[in-house]
Amino acid sequence: MGLEMHNSLSRRREPFVTLVPGSVSMYVCGPNLYGPAHVGHALSYIFFDVVRRYLEYKGFQVRHVQNFTDIEDRIVARAQEEGRSIFAIAQEYIERFLREMDALRVQRAHHYPRATEVIPKMIEIILGLIARGYAYEVDGDVYFRVTSFSRYGLLSGRSLDQMQAGARIEVDERKEHPMDFALWKASRSGEPSWESPWGPGRPGWHIECSAMSMQFLGEQIDLHGGGDDVRFPHHENEIAQSEAYTGKAPFARFWVHNALMKPPVGDEMHRHLGNFVAIRDALARYEPDVIRLFVLSAHYRTPSRWTDEAVDAAGRGLDRLRAALANADTVLGSDPLPLQDGPLATKASESRTAFERAMDDDFGTPAAIAVLFDLAAEINRASGSAMGGNVEPAGGMVHAAAALRTLAGVLGLRVVPDAIPPGAAAAVLQILDEMRAADPALFPGEGGQHNAGEAIALLLSGRGRAREARRFDLADRVRARLGEAGIVVEDLPGGSRWRLVSRRDARA
RNA sequence: GGCGGCGUAGCCAAGAGGCAAGGCAGGGGUCUGCAAAACCCCCAUACGCCGGUUCGAAUCCGGCCGCCGCCUCCA
Fold it and tell me: How far does the CA of A6 sit from the C1' of B33, in Å?
């Protein structure tokens, strides 16, 4: 079965067929740069990152463009409040956004055009629209004439009459129709402005995406994504202005919208409401993998709520996946496994199939994650058996571990833990000194420049000697002290192992 | 008023006609010097409520209740 996805335009699931076989042009609506991004943005960009990774996994050549809205009412307002230029504000938040996306391991788009960089293209489109009767100028403003575009309302599933009925804002009397939207706004005093055939002004919000999309991907694209909140009016308007200008439809073959994330308390997470969880704060408390696993554990069209309890639970689940890879490595490392084939090789290929079936079904990440857990359990069973002496069930372990890594990788999960944090590293060195002082015979050596990994290895070997000598007081002390530093010691049949406790709850 | 979504175990969350995935938490075991991890077993006769269609319904139809989003700020 091939990939099928829900198309907002038809409100149905459709087989994914691209304009050019084997390649995908993908445009995702980026953030307005008036403030920091929150976990709702993270959800959207993590999801579309998975869309891209999966398309690439399936062999598509993906071209991915995401805009930065650097000129818009809120940024202008903010610039005036702070006495800074819109460019300074945009620059600050662009850098921050990219840093945060990198931290979340969202693959960078191929292009991140800014609205202010494509103004010539916008003007070209607006001129074309006016020439064809789809737009008109009033006092330096230019509006799109919605009544001229018969398909207006198709994406959002409403008619102009319905929208008029519910219009909740004051109508600008200069507009021909209340729903006509601004393509270009004449500049007011103090606002940044650009020269245009209609005098100095600045672009309306919607035109940028049409301009960028056409400039970087072409007049028709395969996939256009964004949060459910931009379906109307933003995407509806993009379709109208783009298709009216090019005369080609559809502007985008597939419209994909993710449901919005809810805040810990309340219903809507919005920057202007002040009830958001900033990505920066989330990253301070949770590892990227924890955030990704949490986000992807709910289907992208189901609204989820960011709560400590739910994110913590994702963190514990992540530990489980990590344990499986650690077990696999232990088995593969300790005893060169002659069995290339075996039950786990079969399991690996079954898992790939199941994973693809889940993802082909409108990006069913929850089911895909279930496949990962199922595979992990199988690896753990076989590992336990192998460590107990029965190697037979571990045949094909290499393939199972590889499959787990690969499939987790499609979701952007690294599964391996973060590096030892500086604080823990310092603590480890201190613990080593402490144990050497306590019992130089069991913990020999002194001073020396060790890195944290070496120090832990020395501590564990010393602890092994202590256990053999039945000095459980010392052995337990090592384990307890390391535990305080966030390092968990596990005694396996073949020796001891350590791991970092996953960063998943820093409430304390 | 119009359009749309949601309601599944203590929590998170899949499933969309064939007899309730997965994760977290919890209980009981195995293993361990003790732990930890892992593994095994248990944990929704039940999917907001009421009807209907069907051999069979969380899944389809009708009605009702509750919650939410959008209808020119918004991922």
Answer: 57
Q: What is the pLDDT of residue A508?
A: 38
CA-CA distance, A352 to A57, in Å (whole number)?
11
Between CA A14 and C1' B3 the distance (Å) reads: 22
A80 and A106 belong to one structural domain: yes
**A107 half-sphere exposure, CB direction, 13 A CA radius:** 20
Chain A window 284-313: residues with CB closer than 7 Å to nucleic chain B are: 297-299, 302-305, 307, 309-310, 312-313
Position A441 in a domain: yes
The number of domains in chain A is 3
A303 found inside a domain: no
Say how far A125 CA is from B17 C1', in Å: 51
- Cα(A255)–Cα(A8) distance, integer angstroms: 5
Nucleotides of B under 7 A from a protein CB: 1-6, 11-15, 21-25, 32-40, 68-75
| φ, ψ of residue A62 in degrees (nearest 5) | -105, 130
CA A22 to chain centre: 24
A156 within 8 A of A231, measured Cβ to Cβ: yes
Structure tokens at A463: 């602890």
Whole-number pLDDT of residue A506: 44
Asked if A185 and A225 sit in the same domain, the reply is yes
Q: Which two structure tokens, joined as six digits, stand for A452?
A: 């944290």
pLDDT of res. A450: 86
Q: Residue A384 CB: number of other CB atoms within 10 A?
A: 16
pLDDT of residue A336: 61
Are A85 and A146 found together in one domain? yes
Q: How do A181-186 and A141-144 pair as beta strands? A: antiparallel
- CA A431 / C1′ B12 distance in Å: 38
Range of the domain at A440: 422-500
Low-confidence stretches of chain A (pLDDT < 70) are 1, 164-171, 334-339, 505-508
A339 and A365 in one domain? Answer: yes
- Per-residue confidence (pLDDT) for residue A170, from 0 to 100: 62
Domain assignment present for A310: no
**Do A38 and A95 fall into the same domain?**
yes
A385's CB contacts (< 8 A; 6+ apart) are A391, A392, A393, A394
